[in-house]
């Protein structure tokens, strides 16, 4: 086999494997290098997202939500169940089975599309050469006309709470608890912390979330954040903002955490397990030779332009190692864009229309600008809001928490942002993303026919509410 490729992708996560498949579909001779080994030391594609991120966490979120529903909510529907129990081992085994199905599926897709897969570590050398080190230590050098760096990210460590065995863990460890911890601490009230905290809370843990920032979900529209805080508190999640962890000490089978509270006073809390979820950082360690020529910015991200080109011609970088949100779907779309560019097609990605989701229950989802951003930018805007409590379909489902909020330009009526908290928010946000991608106005959505009864009617009503025309709630008088 020739060691020369049109495209070599370093990294087989949602950015890398999608880029490789797309490039091969476009007739390019493509290879993908992935270093991931699972807990049994078997090579796996899919990166963090499929192996220890998006997919396994959703499996546990769904399992724990179904358990909670059966235990706490079924009686509302007249369904009586005695002695509901959760087999944690069966839940974890199911999660692992789903992961194996999907990672194996990527291998099948590589084969179907003619992508050459290499299991081991890839390193970019000068002149677009790639050094490949297999898991057995053997080394080969490949040549490529184009290289796509898609090496992803790793959890951030904090000195006050270093990961230690199975008591202080990151997201990977938290997906593999084989029993429900009685007392669970979570450092960080971001996406990962809230999702994993809610999984184990539903299963019976006493959960305390310590967030260093003074504002809960500061990147969210604060309407959404306040509603989420209220709902999570009702669910029993103890979220403490302004809590700066200063130390931790393992004492037998538990850990004592020391932190400064919002008043600056020292507090101590003891947990059986502690999840550190304070964010992620780009992974480039050992991936770039000193003479590769690729520039990193001051935060360790690979410097790229709007089309993911690095400063080295023919070398691209995508996903978590470049600017923008660390989201699997953003990485995938960048992979498609870059493959199209390499194949000679015109391609551009709209970074203003990337949705974000937190998969708690209710879910939080948003796209575009929020109120704080628009006010800071001095943009005149209108707000339309509709609560799920007024949705017939949400009532029928006994899932009425939250609302849909649409922000539109005062002058042009163009939709500037959409923010949803509620059941199915992750799916509903796609309607707003599509509308914004086509430059829709709030009136465009208001004039669209939505099926009844559906939860998506809340999007319709929120669009109507932008100009005070909602049908199924009393409209606020516009000033």
UniProtKB/TrEMBL annotation:
<feature type="domain" description="Pyridine nucleotide-disulphide oxidoreductase dimerisation">
    <location>
        <begin position="354"/>
        <end position="463"/>
    </location>
</feature>
<dbReference type="GO" id="GO:0005737">
    <property type="term" value="C:cytoplasm"/>
</dbReference>
<keyword id="KW-0676">Redox-active center</keyword>
<keyword id="KW-0520">NAD</keyword>
<dbReference type="InterPro" id="IPR016156">
    <property type="entry name" value="FAD/NAD-linked_Rdtase_dimer_sf"/>
</dbReference>
<feature type="binding site">
    <location>
        <position position="279"/>
    </location>
    <ligand>
        <name>NAD(+)</name>
    </ligand>
</feature>
<feature type="binding site">
    <location>
        <begin position="188"/>
        <end position="195"/>
    </location>
    <ligand>
        <name>NAD(+)</name>
    </ligand>
</feature>
<feature type="binding site">
    <location>
        <begin position="326"/>
        <end position="329"/>
    </location>
    <ligand>
        <name>FAD</name>
    </ligand>
</feature>
<dbReference type="InterPro" id="IPR012999">
    <property type="entry name" value="Pyr_OxRdtase_I_AS"/>
</dbReference>
<dbReference type="InterPro" id="IPR050151">
    <property type="entry name" value="Class-I_Pyr_Nuc-Dis_Oxidored"/>
</dbReference>
<feature type="active site" description="Proton acceptor">
    <location>
        <position position="452"/>
    </location>
</feature>
<dbReference type="GO" id="GO:0006103">
    <property type="term" value="P:2-oxoglutarate metabolic process"/>
</dbReference>
<dbReference type="GO" id="GO:0004148">
    <property type="term" value="F:dihydrolipoyl dehydrogenase (NADH) activity"/>
</dbReference>
<comment type="similarity">
    <text>Belongs to the class-I pyridine nucleotide-disulfide oxidoreductase family.</text>
</comment>
<keyword id="KW-0547">Nucleotide-binding</keyword>
<feature type="binding site">
    <location>
        <position position="58"/>
    </location>
    <ligand>
        <name>FAD</name>
    </ligand>
</feature>
<dbReference type="InterPro" id="IPR004099">
    <property type="entry name" value="Pyr_nucl-diS_OxRdtase_dimer"/>
</dbReference>
<feature type="binding site">
    <location>
        <position position="122"/>
    </location>
    <ligand>
        <name>FAD</name>
    </ligand>
</feature>
<feature type="binding site">
    <location>
        <position position="211"/>
    </location>
    <ligand>
        <name>NAD(+)</name>
    </ligand>
</feature>
<dbReference type="GO" id="GO:0050660">
    <property type="term" value="F:flavin adenine dinucleotide binding"/>
</dbReference>
<keyword id="KW-0274">FAD</keyword>
<protein>
    <recommendedName>
        <fullName>Dihydrolipoyl dehydrogenase</fullName>
        <ecNumber>1.8.1.4</ecNumber>
    </recommendedName>
</protein>
<dbReference type="InterPro" id="IPR023753">
    <property type="entry name" value="FAD/NAD-binding_dom"/>
</dbReference>
<keyword id="KW-1015">Disulfide bond</keyword>
<feature type="binding site">
    <location>
        <begin position="151"/>
        <end position="153"/>
    </location>
    <ligand>
        <name>FAD</name>
    </ligand>
</feature>
<dbReference type="InterPro" id="IPR036188">
    <property type="entry name" value="FAD/NAD-bd_sf"/>
</dbReference>
<dbReference type="Pfam" id="PF02852">
    <property type="entry name" value="Pyr_redox_dim"/>
</dbReference>
<dbReference type="InterPro" id="IPR006258">
    <property type="entry name" value="Lipoamide_DH"/>
</dbReference>
<dbReference type="Pfam" id="PF07992">
    <property type="entry name" value="Pyr_redox_2"/>
</dbReference>
<feature type="domain" description="FAD/NAD(P)-binding">
    <location>
        <begin position="5"/>
        <end position="335"/>
    </location>
</feature>
<keyword id="KW-0560">Oxidoreductase</keyword>
<feature type="binding site">
    <location>
        <position position="320"/>
    </location>
    <ligand>
        <name>FAD</name>
    </ligand>
</feature>
<keyword id="KW-0285">Flavoprotein</keyword>
<feature type="disulfide bond" description="Redox-active">
    <location>
        <begin position="49"/>
        <end position="54"/>
    </location>
</feature>
<keyword id="KW-0963">Cytoplasm</keyword>
<dbReference type="InterPro" id="IPR001100">
    <property type="entry name" value="Pyr_nuc-diS_OxRdtase"/>
</dbReference>
């Amino acid at each position: 086999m020739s060691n020369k490729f049109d495209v070599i992708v370093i990294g087989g996560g949602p950015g890398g494997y999608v880029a490789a498949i797309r490039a091969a579909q476009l007739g390019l001779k493509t290879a993908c290098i992935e270093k991931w080994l699972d807990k049994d030391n078997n090579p796996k594609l899919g990166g963090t997202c499929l192996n220890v991120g998006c997919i396994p966490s959703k499996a546990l979120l769904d399992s724990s939500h179904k358990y909670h529903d059966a235990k706490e909510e079924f009686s509302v529907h007249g369904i009586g169940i005695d002695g509901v129990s959760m087999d944690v081992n069966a839940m974890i085994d199911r999660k692992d089975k789903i992961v194996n199905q999907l990672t194996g599926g990527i291998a099948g897709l590589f084969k179907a599309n003619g992508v050459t897969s290499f299991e081991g570590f890839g390193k970019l050398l000068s002149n677009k050469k790639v050094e490949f080190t297999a898991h057995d230590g053997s080394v080969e050098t490949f040549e490529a006309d184009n290289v796509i760096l898609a090496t992803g990210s790793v959890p951030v460590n904090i000195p006050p709470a270093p990961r230690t065995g199975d008591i202080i863990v990151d997201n990977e460890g938290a997906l593999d608890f084989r029993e429900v911890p009685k007392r669970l601490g979570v450092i960080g009230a971001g996406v990962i912390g809230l999702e994993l905290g809610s999984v184990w809370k539903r299963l019976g843990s006493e959960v305390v979330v310590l967030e260093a920032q003074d504002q809960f979900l500061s990147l969210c529209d604060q309407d959404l954040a306040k509603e989420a805080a209220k709902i999570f508190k009702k669910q029993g999640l103890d979220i403490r903002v302004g809590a700066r962890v200063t130390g931790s000490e393992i004492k037998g089978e538990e850990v004592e955490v020391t932190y400064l509270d919002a008043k600056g006073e020292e507090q101590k809390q003891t947990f059986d397990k502690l999840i550190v979820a304070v964010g992620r950082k780009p992974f480039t360690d050992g991936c770039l030779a000193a003479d590769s020529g690729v520039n990193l910015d001051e935060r360790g991200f690979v410097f790229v332009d709007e089309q993911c080109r690095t400063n080295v011609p023919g070398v691209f970088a995508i996903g978590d190692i470049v600017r923008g949100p660390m989201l699997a779907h953003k990485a995938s779309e960048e992979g498609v864009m870059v493959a199209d560019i390499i194949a000679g097609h015109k391609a551009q990605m709209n970074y203003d229309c990337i949705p974000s989701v937190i998969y708690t229950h209710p879910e939080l989802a948003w796209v575009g600008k929020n109120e704080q951003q628009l006010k800071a930018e001095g943009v005149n805007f209108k707000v339309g809001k509709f609560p799920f409590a007024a949705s017939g379909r949400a009532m029928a489902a006994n899932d009425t928490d939250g609302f849909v909020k649409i922000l539109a330009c005062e002058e042009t009526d163009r939709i500037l942002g959409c923010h949803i908290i509620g059941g199915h928010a992750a799916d509903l946000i796609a309607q707003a993303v599509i509308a914004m991608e086509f430059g829709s106005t709030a009136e465009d959505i208001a004039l669209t026919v939505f099926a009844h009864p559906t939860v998506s009617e809340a999007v319709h009503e929120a669009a109507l509410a932008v100009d005070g025309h909602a049908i199924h709630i009393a409209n606020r008088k516009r000033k």
